[in-house]
Amino acid sequence: MKLLKTIMIAGLLTVSTAALAHTGIKSTYPANEQMLEAAPQQLTLNFGAPVRLMKVILMDGDHKDLKIGFKPGAEAGTSFKIAVPEIEVGEYMVSWVSMGKDGHKMSGDFSFMVHGEGMSHDDGHDDDHAT
Amino acid sequence: MTDLSPWLIATFSSKLLLYIAYAMSIGGIAATFMIQRYKPQHLPFLSYTQWGVLLGLCFSSLDFFVQVGSFSESGLAGMWDPMYIDILWQSSAGLSYKLRLAGWFGLLFLVLAMRLNATHAKPLSLMALLVSLLIAASFSMVGHTAEQAIWVRLALVLHIFIAMWWIGLLLPLTHWCKEFPANTLQQLMHEFGKQASILVSLLLMAGVGISYALEGDFKTLFNSVHGNTLLLKLGVVALILSLAALHKFRLVPNIKNQQSALALRASIQIEMRIALLILIITAVLSTLVGPSHL
């Protein structure tokens, strides 16, 4: 009886708390710490399961926000492409915020470097991740 | 462990306050329902219930706008960013908030109706208990069970409803210890004990079912912050169950005079503090420490 009770209590306690993997980011373009010959025309963020992408910020080496064409939308998706304005040679950092279907907030960032001349480059599909 | 950002602390606080408001509302209504047999058309703890409902409305809204602010990441003013409000309103967080609003306004309406016409207190309070299930349901729209099978989410609704019914009734019970003569009190407490033993068994079964569906691995109890916090909750729940058993099997059968009633009252007051501790640990578990992914 006492053992049964203990087992039941153990069950009770795991209720609202047990682990369920939250959807992280799967891959990005540019990949984290990728060196690019030419400036990317767009950023790509791929997630493991549908999320709402809530915020994407592109910062230059001086941590200054650059204007990008990102607007959060109510539609959930797994892959997001964001147009990037003409950027120069240098280091860049992207930080993002997303919301999983369960309302959970996730965020992360990744950086890349452009060391060629600012020519356009098609979006690739490297897989590396940063959270 | 997640970083302790101001938003996270705000989320934790609004969630804890929401739990307390929900317990007050259900507890007050359940007390009204229970007392009808002993004091017909009597509306005990109407202000307790009303405060619970009003605070519940406030804290549900606070919880929603704190999430808006946390996602917009643009300071306090970000809580009112129309674009993020719109997106969250359409997400699971919005659905949860809509259910809560429907629940709280429904309760407010029923409580006011009871105030106007106490003769229908029994059916109205029963209806209010059913309406409050909407608020319990709102918790299954967000968080770890949100994407689980329907039976897991139903079990969560049941689990939250019963837990809050129990916790919320403790304050009315302490008042009854002073208000009623020994034999009526004993009868009332006996009835509560009977209801509680059925409901708490359901509470525990629901808990076992949900945890089986979600986890299945108890190793994490020992090697993660989240697991350790969970063990702490386990300890405190064991404590409150022991105390409840002490009341049911020792203190309630022993009610003979005012002195023994006051002894029960003092013990229930301790139970209330333990219950508050459980709510705090639960809010910590669901906001401050994320489940580990081992």
Helices and strands in order:
The complex is a heterodimer of chains A (131) and B (294).
Chain A: H1 2-13, E1 25-29, E2 34-36, E3 42-60, E4 65-66, E5 77-83, E6 90-100, E7 105-114
Parallel strand pairs in A: 2-7
Antiparallel strand pairs in A: 1-3, 3-4, 3-5, 3-6, 6-7
Chain B: H1 6-35, H2 46-72, H3 82-90, H4 92-116, H5 121-138, H6 150-179, H7 182-214, H8 220-223, H9 225-251, H10 258-288
Helix pairs in contact in B: 1-2, 1-5, 1-6, 1-10, 2-4, 3-4, 4-5, 5-6, 6-7, 6-10, 9-10
GO molecular function, one term (chain A): copper ion binding
Signal peptide (chain A): 1-21
InterPro entries (chain A): CopC_dom, Cu-Rt/internalin_Ig-like, Ig_E-set
Greatest chain-chain interface?
A-B, 32 and 56 residues
Percent helix range of chain A:
under 10%
Radius of gyration from the alpha-carbon trace of chain A, in angstroms = 20 Å
Outline the low-pLDDT stretches of chain B. none
CATH topological fold name of the domain at 24-114 in chain A? Immunoglobulin-like
Work out the strand percent of chain A: 35-45%
**Main beta sheet of chain A:** 7 strands, mixed
Please state the overall shape of chain B, judged from the principal axes of the Cα atoms.
Answer: globular
Question: Span from first to last CA of chain A?
Answer: 47 Å
Low-confidence parts of chain A, pLDDT < 50 over ≥5 residues? 7-22, 118-131
**CATH structural class of the domain at 24-114 in chain A:** Mainly Beta
Count of helix runs of chain B? 10
What is the CATH architecture term of the domain at 24-114 in chain A? Sandwich
Largest sheet of chain B: none
N-end to C-end Cα span of chain B: 13 Å
Number of strands of chain A: 7
Relative helix content of chain B: over 70%
GO molecular function, one term (chain A): copper ion binding
Protein name (chain A): Copper resistance protein CopC
Organism (chain A): Leucothrix pacifica
InterPro entries (chain A): CopC_dom (IPR007348), Cu-Rt/internalin_Ig-like (IPR014755), Ig_E-set (IPR014756)
